[in-house]
Amino acid sequence: MKILITTDGSDFSKAAIEKCCQMVVNPENTAIKIVSVYEMTFPLDVFPTPTDFTEKLETSAREQAESFAEQAEAMIRRFFPNSNIDLTTQIAVGAPEQILIEEAKEWNADLVVVGSHGRGFWGRMLLGSTTDALVHHAPCSVLVVRKPR
């Protein structure tokens, strides 16, 4: 089975990773790909040339996404200490919903696991929702995991 897990470092993502690990019956026949996506928002510079500040913002965002993926990988490896589980990570920049849907298609994922941020109807209407986009557009099943109370 091929499972794509997305992480943003939140407690919701950690709950999703934990639930996914609990569901894996045969780790040797399971491939897990951890994807951490960051979006770049550029400040409105008064000067037309790129600044060190913009470069530092991108470096910081990438390093944070890498850290989230490393934490998720460590969590999964702790859950399966004596197995040879196929585990990879990917860092991407762009719109999370687009990247995750495309990656699920290209990688032929059987399942996408994502944490629910619990924003509800108004939050989705105002903010958009990666989870909502995955549920409606992913090429495979999607497991949305709520953070335990």
Characterization of the model:
This protein has about 150 residues and is of the alpha/beta class. It has one domain (about 1-145): Rossmann fold (3-Layer(aba) Sandwich), CATH 3.40.50. It contains five helices and five strands; from the N terminus they run βαβαβαβααβ. It has helices at about 10-25, 50-80, 95-105, 120-125, 130-135; strands at about 1-5, 30-40, 85-95, 110-115, 140-145. The radius of gyration is 16 Å and the shape is globular.
Write a concise keyword list for the protein shown above:
single chain; 149 residues; alpha/beta; Rossmann fold
* Number of helices, counting only DSSP H or I runs of 4 residues or more: 5
Beta-strand residue fraction: 15-25%
Instruction: Write the CATH homologous superfamily.
Output: HUPs
Shape verdict: globular
Task: Please outline the major beta sheet.
Answer: 5 strands, parallel
SSE run: EHEHEHEHHE
Mean pLDDT: 87
Q: CATH top level? A: Alpha Beta
Specify the CATH architecture: 3-Layer(aba) Sandwich
Give the terminus-to-terminus CA distance. Answer: 29 Å
- Number of separate strands: 5
The CATH topology annotation reads as Rossmann fold
Strand order of the largest sheet: 3-2-1-4-5
Helix content: 40-55%
Content-based structural category = alpha/beta
Radius of gyration: 16 Å
Count of folded domains: 1
Q: Spans of 5+ residues with little confidence (pLDDT < 50)?
A: 122-128
